[in-house]
Design brief:
- This protein has three domains: 5-58, Structural Genomics Hypothetical 15.5 Kd Protein In mrcA-pckA Intergenic Region, Chain A, CATH 3.10.290.10; 66-129 and 214-236, Alpha-Beta Plaits (2-Layer Sandwich); 135-211, Alpha-L RNA-binding motif (Alpha-Beta Plaits, 2-Layer Sandwich), CATH 3.30.70.1560.
- It is built from six helices and 15 strands.
- The protein is elongated, with a radius of gyration of 22 Å.
- With 243 residues, the chain is α+β, with helices and mostly antiparallel strands.
C-alpha cells in the first residue's frame, strides 16, 4: 500500500492544474475515482491503489521525476540567476510542476550530462563525499598532455589552494594528445579546469559524458531533455560504494 493524500493534492502534484482550476474541474465532473464522479477535492486517495481519471485519462502518480539534460554552453546549473539563463529554463512544460533542480553543477561554459530531479535523497547519494561516484569528462586542452599527466593525475593533483585531489584516471588520445578523457570521483568547484591549471595547461572545451554508470544519450542534442527510465536509474547507481 502506498501513501494516502488529498485528491486535489494528488492531481496538483501531477500538473493537472492550480487549486482554483481543480475546483472548477471537480464542479464540471472531470474527476472520477474508482468509477464514481468526485466533486470534493479533500477526498483521501491512495494513488497506488485507487483508479483516478482526470478528463477521461488515467492519472499515474509519480512523486519523483528524473531527467537527463545535454547541457549547452551559456546556462547556469541553478534554478534561478539574475544575469544568465538557468538549466531549469530548458525543462519541458510537461515536467515543470515537479520543480526539479540540478544534481550538482556544471560550469556555465561546460556542456554535457546534467541530471535534473526533485528527489533529494538520490541527489544526496550522488553528491555525498561518502560515495565515490565516477564522472567522466572529455576535455580539449591548450597544450598536449603527456605520460607525466597520467602519472600526476593518478597520484593526486594538488590544486592552487593546497587541496590534494583523489586519484583520477586520464586517457590521452594518441592521434590528438590535446584531447583527453578524465574520470574523477569527487566534485570540487571548477575541479577539472583547476587540475589542468596545476599542470600549467588550460581547458578550452569541457563536456561531461558519464555519471555513475549512466552515459549521455548520443542522440540527445544540446539543450534537449530525456526522462530517465528505471533501467537508466539502475545504471546511474551501479557504481556508488560507501566508503
Amino acid at each position: 500500500m502506498g501513501q494516502t493524500m488529498r485528491l486535489d493534492k494528488c492531481l496538483g502534484n501531477m500538473g493537472k492544474g492550480s487549486r482554483r482550476a481543480l475546483k472548477e474541474a471537480f464542479k464540471k465532473g472531470a474527476v472520477m475515482v474508482n468509477g464514481k464522479f468526485v466533486k470534493d477535492g479533500s477526498l483521501k486517495v491512495d494513488p497506488d491503489i485507487d483508479d483516478i481519471l482526470f478528463e477521461g485519462e488515467k492519472v499515474i502518480y509519480e512523486p519523483f521525476v528524473y531527467l537527463m539534460l545535454n547541457k549547452p554552453d551559456g546556462y547556469i546549473s541553478a534554478t534561478e540567476d539574475k544575469h544568465f539563463p538557468v538549466v531549469v529554463d530548458l525543462v519541458p512544460e510537461a515536467y515543470r510542476h515537479y520543480d526539479v533542480f540540478p544534481v550538482g553543477r556544471l560550469d556555465r561554459d561546460t556542456e554535457g550530462l546534467l541530471l535534473l530531479t526533485n528527489d533529494g535523497a538520490l541527489t544526496h547519494r550522488l553528491l555525498s563525499p561518502k560515495y565515490h561516484v565516477p564522472k567522466v569528462y572529455f576535455a580539449k586542452l591548450e597544450k598536449d598532455a603527456s605520460q607525466a599527466y597520467i602519472e600526476a593525475f593518478k597520484k593526486g593533483i594538488t590544486l592552487e589552494d593546497g587541496y590534494v585531489c583523489e586519484s583520477a584516471e586520464l586517457v590521452i588520445d594518441k592521434e590528438t594528445p590535446d584531447e583527453v578523457l578524465l574520470t574523477i570521483y569527487e566534485g570540487k568547484f571548477h575541479q577539472v579546469k583547476r587540475m589542468f591549471e596545476a599542470m600549467d595547461n588550460k581547458v578550452t572545451y569541457l563536456k561531461r559524458l558519464k555519471m555513475g554508470g549512466l552515459a549521455l544519450e548520443p542522440a540527445l542534442a544540446l539543450g534537449e531533455i530525456k526522462k530517465l527510465t528505471q533501467e537508466d536509474l539502475e545504471k546511474l547507481e551501479q557504481t556508488p560504494v560507501e566508503s
